[in-house]
Automatic annotation (TrEMBL):
The chain crosses the membrane at residues 15-37. This is DUF2149 domain-containing protein. Keywords: Membrane, Transmembrane, Transmembrane helix. InterPro entries: DUF2149. It holds the Pfam family DUF2149.
């Protein structure tokens, strides 16, 4: 009879539930680490890339990663307008090369 009480006490041990929760959290952490490692914006990747969000719209954003530098550009919403001045003329020759002639 005393042996039966010991077996029931082990089955109702609350620490076993905690061990199962720790296992579940370890699996979740491993999945999140894999997701971060596969993300192109991750700081652990050495690849260069360009990411365009909302292309052609007024709220377009461009994210450029080259080596260790990360540049972020946001569209002003006004397409083809700005405060620049004409600096010269570019010509495309028949062989496909470009020539820039400053004014």
């Amino acid at each position: 009879m005393s042996l039966r009480l010991l077996e029931e006490a082990e089955a109702d041990d609350p620490i076993l539930s905690v061990v199962n929760l720790i296992d579940v959290f370890l699996v979740i952490i491993a999945a999140l680490l894999l997701a971060v490692a596969n993300n192109p914006v991750s700081p652990f990747t050495q690849e260069d890339f360009t990411l365009i969000k909302n292309p052609g719209q007024a709220n377009m954003e461009i994210l450029i990663k080259q080596g260790e530098t990360l540049e972020h550009y946001t569209a002003s919403g006004e397409i083809g307008e700005g405060e620049g001045a004409r600096a010269g003329i570019a010509y495309r020759l028949q062989d496909g090369s470009m020539i820039y002639v400053p004014e």
